[in-house]
Amino acid sequence: MNIAIIGTGNIGSALARLLAGIKGNNVVVAGKSATDGAELAARLHADSGVNLESGSISRAVEQSDVVILAVPYGAIAGIARSVNFDGKILVDLSNPVKEDFSGITVGFSTSAAEEIQALLPGARVVKAFNTVFAQVYEQGLDFDGSAVPAFVASDSDAARSTVMELAARAGFDPVDAGPLSNARYLEPLGYLNIQFGYMLGHGTQIAPAWIRRKAA
Ligand SMILES: NC(=O)c1ccc[n+]([C@@H]2O[C@H](COP(=O)([O-])OP(=O)(O)OC[C@H]3O[C@@H](n4cnc5c(N)ncnc54)[C@H](OP(=O)(O)O)[C@@H]3O)[C@@H](O)[C@H]2O)c1
């Protein structure tokens, strides 16, 4: 799979390391400045031995089937204006949190993901990975025998399946979260995770999961 990761911060670098380590993935990273991607690729190669490409945002998007936006929600409209995402599967993992972390800026009759889809009608937007802290990737996706869930929502069945497969191959438990409008509930769930992790004392080695009764 050809994957572009836009954003070289906490989540961009964690996903780049994880996805580039999987056979069959070609990962290209791009950041705000021309050198951000190259610096990240060199660092991950030195630290973890993974091979990534780097380039400008438009070049990275052009050569990929799946594009992961690992930037703050507020940066996405600017990127959307300057890059052609037509035909791409576009993964939005943002939690549109207020600057002071007192809540979220979008909802509840829409979501960040739906706003991005409206900006980029030629792309197939998929909400995923917003409930997983960057620190979780550092210690791995296995929590004592249970894989970390990746809730995946999209209006495109094919795009949702592709991202669920990408997530499964990376070690997540992919969960079909239905249409993109369910991002209205996944984004508050991401915020609740932040509340638990940072305000309520649980720390960042946590992730939301649904439990199922085996014999009903
Ligand atoms: N951190 C988490 O645990 C976590 C968990 C789930 C979801 N998320 C979501 O993941 C996204 C990224 O969070 P993060 O923690 O990785 O933040 P971060 O460490 O601050 O990284 C954000 C990256 O985006 C870059 N960026 C900003 N504007 C850009 C633009 N216009 N073009 C290209 N790159 C741009 C930043 O570059 P500069 O540093 O040069 O500004 C930085 O490399 C956010 O939407 C967040 O809600 C985060």
Description:
- The protein is built from eight helices and ten strands.
- It is an alpha/beta fold.
- The protein has a single domain, classed as NAD(P)-binding Rossmann-like Domain (Rossmann fold), CATH 3.40.50.720.
- Strands 3-2-1-4-5-6-9-10 form an eight-stranded mixed sheet, sandwiched between helices. Strands 7-8 form a two-stranded antiparallel ribbon.
- Strand 2 (26-30), helix 2 and strand 3 form a beta-alpha-beta unit.
- It is globular, with a radius of gyration of 16 Å.
- The structure holds NADP nicotinamide-adenine-dinucleotide phosphate.
Number of strands: 10
The name CATH uses for the topology is Rossmann fold
Low-confidence segments, ≥5 residues, pLDDT <50? Answer: none
The total tally of domains equals: 1
Q: Please report which band the strand proportion falls in: under 5%, 5-15%, 15-25%, 25-35%, 35-45% or over 45%.
A: 15-25%
- Major sheet: 8 strands, mixed
> What would you report as the Rg, rounded to the nearest angstrom?
16 Å
The CATH homologous superfamily is termed NAD(P)-binding Rossmann-like Domain
Walk across the major sheet and give the strand order. Answer: 3-2-1-4-5-6-9-10
**Could you give the distance between the termini?**
38 Å
